[in-house]
Amino acid sequence: MQSTKTGLVTVTMNPAIDLACTVPGFAAGAVNRVAEYRSDAAGKGVNIAGLLRKFGLPVTVTGFLGTENARIFEKRFSDLGVTDAFVRVPGETRIGIKVLDPESRSTTDINFPGLTPDASHLDRLTETVARLSREAAVVVVAGSLPVGVAPEEVGRLIGVIKAQGARAVVDTSGPALASAVRAAPWLIKPNDDELAELVGRPTGDLDDLVAEARRMNAEGIATVAVSLGARGAVFVEDGQALLSRPPKVEAVSTVGAGDAMIGGLVAGMALGLPLEERVRLATALAAATVMQAGPAIKDLNAAKVLEARIEITNLQKGG
Ligand SMILES: Nc1ncnc2c1ncn2[C@@H]1O[C@H](COP(=O)(O)OP(=O)(O)OP(=O)(O)O)[C@@H](O)[C@H]1O
Ligand SMILES: [Mg+2]
Question: Has residue 102 got a pLDDT over 80?
Fold first, then answer.
């Protein structure tokens, strides 16, 4: 059944400002000088929205944003051409500082506390998601939760999205992922660690992984993708099970690989592609993302050239 709704929405409840600075010879307890730095408005849903825009698809972004440092996000939203429906919360969106020392080849992380949305902010987000879901084909809920937001809220949001006739996609981990799975979203993409936590044991070979994915299909999750880092990913949907393997590429930064894979799956759905083509597109986009610094590829060509080198194997028995 093809949905006639075309809008795409991403929900980022816990975005962050990533501040990366290079400090040669960084030392604790001393005065350190920054040689160069960059700050980026980050968050899984924001990254996914950026990728979807490269396909020219219409995207609205929502979630929670602090009033005190919203400008960097507002600029990114306007650069990307996405509609800003973020709920503003008093205070500052969390900042994550990465201190890179080229001399010791070390990275030091300093993570600020984030926003603490209250019940009224959560209500406003629920209303926003309900309103946007009415016109949306797909709503993606991605990333971690801010302090004070219970994991069950993710499952509740999935319920709201489904009730308005949109397809829910979830990328989170731990209890929030477990809550989402109980609400049976349309697509999930755990990595192997997240899947192990979800099923309560380390998964074994590919057959075992496919069996777990099929169990989730039976519970109402249409597409279960399990990503395996450089080994690629397994996609289980509608009686089909495909293993997709990227070519060996030079990994510059794996930041955003999972986001690119989800962006590719959602774009492929929006473009009406069959499973195998969606899988090829998603795997190529993820590999292209890994080959360069930062979570966003410059253009789709980088992925296009990799598509022919993606190896897709049918894991289905007797088929
Ligand atoms: N070194 C690599 N070479 C090629 N492709 C890669 C590499 N690492 C990751 N990928 C691609 O990116 C996909 C997602 O990566 P991964 O399994 O690490 O997701 P993740 O742990 O959810 O990542 P994230 O940190 O973005 O949440 C993989 O399934 C694979 O297709
Ligand atoms: Mg991930």
Answer: yes
Phi, psi angles (nearest 5°) of residue 8: -125, 140
CA of 38 to the centre of ligand 1 (A): 24
Query: Which residue ranges form the domains of the chain, and what is each CATH number?
Result: 7-14+44-92+116-314 (3.40.1190.20)
- What DSSP character marks residue 147? T
Query: What are the catalytic residues?
Result: 259
318 pLDDT exceeds 60?
no
Q: How far apart are CA 203 and CA 191, in angstroms?
A: 11
CA of 301 to the centre of ligand 1 (A): 19
Q: How far apart are CA 105 and CA 94, in angstroms?
A: 26
pLDDT-based confidence at residue 319 (cuts at 50, 70, 90): very low
- Taking alpha carbons only, the member of 153, 203, 147 closest to residue 178 is 153
pLDDT at residue 313 in the model: 98
